[in-house]
Amino acid sequence: MDSNTVTGPTCASTSTASTSSSNSEVAIAYCPPIADTVVTPMIIESKRVDKDSVYIKWGPYSGVDTFNVEYGFENGKWLFNTNVTGFFTTINDLPSNRPIWIRVAARNDCQIGVYGEPKFVGSPRLPNTGFAPQKNNLFIFINQIKNWFL
Q1: Which domain of life is it from (predicted)?
Q2: Which of 17, 34, 88, 108 could form a disulfide with 113 if both were Cys (CB 3.0 to 4.6 A apart)?
Q3: In sequence order, what E strands does 92-137 have?
Q4: What pLDDT digit, counting tens, does each position of 6-61 carry?
Q5: How far apart are CA 101 and CA 16, in angstroms?
């Protein structure tokens, strides 16, 4: 084995290694690391879409468009993940009005890069009172909300 020659092609390809004593060929897969030029993605927009869905968008563009999105209900406890092509996604089928923690990392076919800063997303919506908060009706708005929770 000391005289083996191994070359490293791209992730999708395989290479052959041969030995001088047996002349046999062995396929070896090589997975290149995520490029050093890839900027760690940051969540730049997030919002609750409805009671069980949140929308997130991230950037900046740095030569890749495939990402892994991890999320969970506590920061650091990543229960779920999904692969996304592009720079935004909507996560559906969450527990009703429950916010989540999300983080995003660039990925290639073989591995996931460094995750960006986690973000707390999708706090519950306040109920619609029919009154937009304005200078003269703020007191009415607050009392209406108070009555809903009592």
Answers
A1: Bacteria
A2: 34
A3: 100-107, 112-115, 119-121
A4: 444 445 544 444 445 555 566 666 777 777 778 899 999 999 998 899 999 999 88
A5: 44
Structural domains present in the chain:
1-30 (no CATH), 42-121 (2.60.40.10)
Distance of CA 85 to the CA centre of its chain: 11
- Reference 69, options 35, 112, 6, 32; nearest CA is 112
Kindly report the number of other CB atoms within 10 A of residue 63's CB atom: 9
pLDDT tens digit sequence for 101-127: 999 999 988 889 999 999 999 876 555
d(CA 9, CA 25): 16
Judge contact between 42 and 58, C-beta under 8 A: yes
CA-wise closest residue to 59 among 106, 121, 12, 119 = 106
- Residues 54 and 68: their CA atoms lie apart, in Å, by 16
Name the residue among 126, 122, 127, 125 with its Cα closest to residue 73.
Answer: 122
